[in-house]
């Protein structure tokens, strides 16, 4: 048990079968953990059907309701650490992250000396596709804002396609990670950086989802704006 991909889901029946098939088709030894927040569209049922085809490789953790992206990943991280996975990657279910890039993120940690590998839109070679201009502007503006406030040397701090070495997650106090949306991704990278771990950005092409619906909301954006200030305040002045 070496490599785990954690995919949080809520109403992803249009994508879940294809994303699972795409990861396993890489034939790189990745296991998959789906953390489903009680999807009423039957996402969990589809995963259960596929588990028969992938015994010991495909796992499902079901939660009682929509509890947030951040808590889903924390749940998955703890699950992975209990089972001794060496490399733990988080990825979206909607194909905005190309499953083939899992290999490059893993290589950055396993071969290139990174402790955290970030699939980045904003380093040389990285880009976005099919995004409306307002969302592209919001995302790029957020990346600049995060660096100005926190001084973190990461150009895509809100990225959700990230590979962690288990040592990084072991050293973190996962229960102290409180944010659930945009700010969760920032808080995780900021915490890893403050603990002295090496973060490497790997250029990717981020493609807007083709099936299903975006989970973006005004509340998530607000959390990101205010959360960044809180993260830096707590770092400078303590809790």
UniProtKB/TrEMBL annotation:
<feature type="domain" description="Glycosyltransferase 2-like">
    <location>
        <begin position="5"/>
        <end position="171"/>
    </location>
</feature>
<dbReference type="GO" id="GO:0004582">
    <property type="term" value="F:dolichyl-phosphate beta-D-mannosyltransferase activity"/>
</dbReference>
<keyword id="KW-0328">Glycosyltransferase</keyword>
<protein>
    <submittedName>
        <fullName>Dolichol-phosphate mannosyltransferase</fullName>
    </submittedName>
</protein>
<comment type="similarity">
    <text>Belongs to the glycosyltransferase 2 family.</text>
</comment>
<dbReference type="GO" id="GO:0009247">
    <property type="term" value="P:glycolipid biosynthetic process"/>
</dbReference>
<dbReference type="InterPro" id="IPR029044">
    <property type="entry name" value="Nucleotide-diphossugar_trans"/>
</dbReference>
<dbReference type="InterPro" id="IPR001173">
    <property type="entry name" value="Glyco_trans_2-like"/>
</dbReference>
<dbReference type="InterPro" id="IPR039528">
    <property type="entry name" value="DPM1-like"/>
</dbReference>
<keyword id="KW-0808">Transferase</keyword>
<dbReference type="GO" id="GO:0016020">
    <property type="term" value="C:membrane"/>
</dbReference>
<dbReference type="Pfam" id="PF00535">
    <property type="entry name" value="Glycos_transf_2"/>
</dbReference>
């Amino acid at each position: 048990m070496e490599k785990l991909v954690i995919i949080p889901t809520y109403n992803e029946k249009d994508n879940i079968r294809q994303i699972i098939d795409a990861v396993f088709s890489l034939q790189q030894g990745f296991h998959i953990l789906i953390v489903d927040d009680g999807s009423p569209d039957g996402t969990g049922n589809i995963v259960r059907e596929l588990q028969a085809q992938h015994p010991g490789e495909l796992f499902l953790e079901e939660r009682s309701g929509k509890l947030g992206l951040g808590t889903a990943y924390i749940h998955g991280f703890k699950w992975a650490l209990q089972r001794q996975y060496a490399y733990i990657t988080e990825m979206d279910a909607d194909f905005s992250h190309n499953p083939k890039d899992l290999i490059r993120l893993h290589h950055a940690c396993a071969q290139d000396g990174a402790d955290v590998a970030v699939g980045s839109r904003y380093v040389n070679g990285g880009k976005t596709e099919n995004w409306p201009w307002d969302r592209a502007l919001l995302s790029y503006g957020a990346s600049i804002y995060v660096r100005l406030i926190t001084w973190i040397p990461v150009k895509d701090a809100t990225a959700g396609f990230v590979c962690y070495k288990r040592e990084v997650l072991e050293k973190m106090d996962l229960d102290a990670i409180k944010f659930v949306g945009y700010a969760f991704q920032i808080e995780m990278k900021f915490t890893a950086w403050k603990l002295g771990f090496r973060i490497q950005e790997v250029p990717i092409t981020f493609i807007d989802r083709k099936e299903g619906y975006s989970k973006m909301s005004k509340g998530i954006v607000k959390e990101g704006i205010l959360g960044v200030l809180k993260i830096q305040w707590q770092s400078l002045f303590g809790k």
